[in-house]
Structures are given as C-alpha cells and as structure tokens.
Amino acid sequence: MARKPLVAGNWKMNKTTIEATFLLQELAYACEKRYEDMDVVVCPPFTNLRSARVVFDSDKSGIKIGAQDVFWEDEGAYTGAISPLMLKELGCSYCIVGHSERREFFGETDEMVNAKARALIRHGIAPIICCGETLETRDAGETESFVTAQVRAALTEITADEAQKAVIAYEPIWAIGTGHTPTPEMAEETCAAIRLELTELYGTATAQEMRILYGGSMKPSNVKHFEPLPNIDGGLIGGASLVAADFIDLLKAFD
C-alpha cells in the first residue's frame, strides 16, 4: 500500500535562537504549499521550538514541529526535564525517542523509551521511535534480532490503534554522523524485518499503515538509493537538515 512519506530533520544540539530563526525562515519559504503529499517535520532543540511555531504559523507553512526528547511524567520534581504537556503547548506533533545518542550518553533503556512513547501517545504526539545496531552487532549477524527486540520493547502495552500514531526510525548506529551508510539492500532487509515484527504484534493492516524511516548519514547524494525501497517511508535526517538546500533536496526525492 502507499504510505504517506515523512521526512524529519533532527537538528540535535545545534543552532542558537538567532541561527535557528534564519534556517526556519528559509525552510518555511521553500516549503510553503509545496509538500501536501508528504509530512515534513523539523526537530530543533527545545530552546527553538517556540521560534519554529512562530515562524511556521506566520508563514502558514505546512511544516510540522517535533521535539528531540521528552520525559514521561506530566509534571513534578524532575529538574531539567521536559513534559509531553509542555511540548503539546508549543505545537509539537512529533517527538523523537530512543535515539542512539540518548541511549549511549544518557543511559536510556528500552523501558524508558517505552514510557516516553506511551506518554506522548497519551497526549496526541506521535513518537518517532529509534532503533539500530552497533557495528559489532551487525558483524555478529544479530542485526534483525537486536533491532526487532528494541521495537517490541518500545511498543510494550501500546495498542494497535495507538501504534498507528507511532513512527519507527531505523538508524544503524555505525552509520550515524560517520558518512558510512549501509547498502540499500541492507537497509531494506532490516526495515522489512521491522515491518514483519509489527505484523506479528498488531496484524497486517496496522503494520502496513505504520511508517518506517531510514536514518544514518542520509543526504542528497545517496537518497536516491533509499527512496524507492518498499519498506522505507522517509528519512530521519541529521546533518543534512542543518542546511536548507540539502534538506529541500531530500524532500524533493520523497515528494
């Protein structure tokens, strides 16, 4: 079946408020009324979410706003944390959870990723659930079992109706920010395994509705190899989302 493509830019810890405003304006101008058949999402740092809402609202842009992380409680004594309610108030439609950098540098577990995904769904925000393997895991021939276990854990206690709101992003850790990418065949094989896992969890209809993104050094020079693949429905873009022209080229590839 034809799924609506989704391309999300993960800015990570980049761009001051002034720098972000310029980039947001560039994107809003370039994307205005152009991508009705796909979802375009920008995920800046939390400090720039309000700027994104102001720019996109004033320009009547179709770009949606996403956050890079969330805590699973609505409020409380959690210094430095950001709740789903706060993201919703700022107009976030999506939020990344379980990125490998969060797992590596901040000690996030599968259980924490699941708690975040359920909290987001509870507040009407679509989680972009990240999964991916290390080079050691791939060399050991354990990619599919490792990645599908991450997906299964992240979706614990999430119903089929709720799961349809979620997005899965496959990002091989060894390809993130390294310039190295898996072959299209490797990416498709893993994404197909993810969809099979979704089928086992929720049935064929729900699995076919859910979108699976590829991330990991996707850029204008290699996107043409990934866009046609049947189980890849868009991209979670890192470095290339920080340059307006590069991000627009990626959008054109999936349009």
Describe the 3D structure.
With 255 residues, the chain is an alpha/beta fold. The protein is 44% helix and 15% strand. The chain has 12 helices and 8 strands. The protein has an 8-stranded parallel beta barrel, surrounded by 5 helices. Strand 1, helix 1 and strand 2 form a beta-alpha-beta unit. The chain is globular.
Dominant shape: globular
Provide the helix percentage. Answer: 40-55%
Poorly predicted sequence stretches spanning 5 or more consecutive residues: none
Tally the helices: what do you get?
12
Largest sheet at a glance?
8 strands, parallel, barrel
As laid out across the biggest beta sheet, the strand order is 1-2-3-4-5-6-7-8
Q: Count every beta strand, where a strand is a DSSP E run of 2 or more residues.
A: 8
Q: Radius of gyration from the CA trace?
A: 17 Å
| Mean of all residue-level pLDDT scores | 95
Strand and helix order: EHEHEHEHHEHHHEHHEHEH
Q: Please indicate the percent range of residues in DSSP E strands (runs of 2 or more).
A: 15-25%
Termini gap: 16 Å
Structural class computed from helices and strand pairing: alpha/beta
